[in-house]
Design goal:
Layout lengths: L2 H11 L11 E5 L2 E4 L4 E4 L2 H4 L8 H13 L10 H12 L5 E5 L2 H18 L7 E6 L7 H6 E2 L14 E4 L4 H5 L6 E6 L2 E2 L5 E2 L2 H13 L3 E5 L23 E4 L10 E5 L1 H4 L15 H14 L4 H22 L4 E7 L2 E6 L7 H6 L2 E2 L1 E2 L4 E4 L7 H19 L1
Parallel strand pairs: 3-16, 5-6, 5-7, 5-8, 8-11, 11-12
Antiparallel strand pairs: 1-2, 2-3, 4-13, 9-10, 12-13, 14-15, 15-18, 17-18
Helix pairs in contact: 3-10, 4-10, 11-13
Bound molecules: pyridoxal-5'-phosphate.
Length: 399
C-alpha cells in the first residue's frame, strides 16, 4: 500500500479523534523512527513518554518473544509468573506494599479513584468520598479521569461528569485547605503537571499536601503515569520531593511499548479492598509484565536515573541559553530530568512542522510549551542536535 493510500484509508475507516501529520511510521531503531518513504526522524517524543529505552531494545524484544511463545494470556482467574516478578520488584523499589495491574494510564487512575472511595466509605464512621483534584491537571480520557482533569476542554460535550470532585490550584496549598471537609477522602495530584504545560510541583506544596492528608485522614495519590519510571531523573518523581503517597499510578514507560497500567498502594489502602472489588481481563498480562520486568530492571541499574538527571540538566541548560538569545520567542524553560518544556511566545504547535521538516519529532504540552521527551537512553550529541535545530528555527524566524 502506498503512503497516501494508507493515510486515505485511515481517514476513511478510523474515527477521527486525532490529528496526525502526513507520514506513516514503519519502524524504529534506538532513538530513530523511519517512515514508509525511508525518511529518518530523531524522536524526542518517545511515543508520549513510553519508549524510555528507545526502539528495538534487544532484551525487551527477546523477553516479549519468549513470553509470547510460552503464554500470552490466561486472565486473572489463574496465577502466572511475570506479574509476580514485576509486582515484587515494584514493591521492593517503592513506597508501596501492594499493586493492582491493568492496561493503561487512565485505567490505573480509575482504579486509584475507586480504591480511594472504597477506603473512605468503609474505614470511617461516616461516608467519606469527596476527592480534591487540580486545575490544569491531566489524568486520561475515561469518565473518572476527565472528571478529575482540571481542564474544561476535556469535559465539553461529555457532561455530566462524576460528582463529588473539587478543584484546587496547583502549588497553592491554601486553595486546597479551603476545600477540605470531613467528607474528603483523597487528594489526587501529578507531582509534575505534564500535559498541562510542564509545571513542577514544589517540595513545600507536596509536603503540605502530605501533612494535610495525615492531619485530616485523607489519602494522597500521585499520578506518575508520565513522570514516573525514571523520566524526571529519579526512579519516582516523588523521591525528589521528600514525600511519599498512599497510592501511585503508573503506565506508559513501564511496558516498554506494550500496554500496562499499575496502581501501587500502601497496606492500609489494600486492607479496604476485597476480592471482586475491581478487575481487568487483560490486567497482569504475561507478555506486558515480562517486558516490564526487563524495562524496570534497566531503570534500576546503577547510574541509569543519574544519567537521566545529568542529561536533563544539560538539555534544560542549553534551552535556557536559547531563551537568553531569543527572549522574545522563548519565555521560560521548565521541567525535571528528561521532561523539559520551552515556553514559547507563539503557539507551540507552530513549531512542530519546522522541527519535522528538519527530521526531528517533538511534542507540545498545553498551548505554549514545546515539550521534549527523548528516550531516556538518548545521548548528549542528539540533545545538541535538537537544540541546534531549534536555534536555527528561531534564527530563521527572526530574519
Ligand atoms: C499524567 C497522566 N495521567 C494519565 C494519562 C493517561 O494515560 P493513558 O493515555 O495511558 O490512558 C496520561 C497520558 O498522557 C498522563 O500524562
Amino acid at each position: 500500500m502506498r503512503t497516501e493510500d494508507i493515510i486515505k484509508a485511515e481517514n476513511q475507516y478510523i474515527l477521527q479523534t486525532y490529528g496526525r501529520p502526513e507520514f506513516v511510521l514503519e519502524r524504529g531503531n534506538g532513538v530513530y523512527l523511519f517512515d514508509t518513504e525511508g525518511n529518518r526522524y530523531l524522536d524526542f517524543v518517545s511515543g508520549l513518554a513510553v519508549n524510555a529505552l528507545g526502539y528495538g531494545d534487544y532484551e525487551v524484544v527477546k523477553a516479549i518473544e519468549e513470553q509470547a511463545g510460552k503464554l500470552m494470556h490466561v486472565s486473572n482467574l489463574y496465577h502466572t509468573i511475570p506479574s509476580v516478578e514485576l509486582a515484587k520488584s515494584l514493591v521492593e523499589n517503592s513506597f508501596a506494599d501492594r499493586v493492582f495491574f491493568c492496561n493503561s494510564g487512565t485505567e490505573s487512575w480509575e482504579a486509584a479513584m475507586k480504591f480511594c472511595r472504597k477506603w473512605g466509605n468503609t474505614t470511617h464512621a461516616k461516608p467519606k468520598n469527596r476527592l480534591i483534584a487540580f486545575n490544569n491537571s491531566f489524568h486520561g480520557r475515561t469518565y473518572g479521569s476527565i472528571s478529575t482533569t482540571g481542564q474544561p476542554k476535556y469535559h465539553k460535550g461529555f457532561e455530566p461528569l462524576l460528582p463529588g470532585i473539587d478543584f484546587a490550584d496547583f502549588n497553592d496549598l491554601a486553595s486546597v485547605e479551603a476545600l477540605v471537609t470531613d467528607e474528603t477522602c483523597a487528594i489526587l495530584v501529578e507531582p509534575l503537571q505534564a500535559e498541562g504545560g510542564i509545571h513542577v510541583g514544589t517540595p513545600e506544596f507536596l509536603a503540605g499536601l502530605r501533612a494535610l492528608c495525615d492531619e485530616r485522614e485523607m489519602l494522597l495519590v500521585f499520578d506518575e503515569i508520565q513522570v514516573g519510571c525514571g523520566r524526571t531523573g529519579s526512579l519516582w518523581a516523588y523521591e525528589q520531593l521528600g514525600v511519599e503517597p498512599d497510592i501511585m499510578t503508573l503506565a506508559k514507560a513501564l511496558g516498554g511499548g506494550l500496554p500496562i497500567g499499575v496502581a501501587l498502594m500502601r497496606q492500609h489502602v489494600a486492607d479496604a479492598i476485597a476480592a471482586g472489588d475491581h478487575a481487568a481481563t487483560f490486567g497482569a498480562n504475561p507478555v506486558a509484565c515480562a517486558a516490564a520486568v526487563v524495562v524496570f530492571n534497566k531503570l534500576i541499574e546503577d547510574g541509569f536515573v543519574q544519567s537521566v538527571k545529568e542529561k536533563g540538566q544539560y538539555l534544560a541548560g542549553r534551552l535556557q541559553k536559547l531563551q537568553e538569545r531569543f527572549p522574545d520567542k522563548i519565555t521560560g524553560v521548565r521541567g525535571r530530568g528528561l521532561i523539559v518544556g520551552a515556553v514559547t511566545e507563539k503557539p507551540a504547535a507552530e513549531y512542530l512542522v519546522p522541527f519535522r521538516e528538519r527530521d526531528i519529532l517533538v511534542a507540545t504540552a498545553g498551548a505554549d510549551v514545546v515539550r521534549f521527551l527523548p528516550p531516556l537512553v538518548v545521548e548528549k550529541d542528539r540533545i545538541d542536535e535538537v537544540v541546534d535545530v531549534f536555534d536555527e528555527i528561531l534564527r530563521q524566524e527572526s530574519e
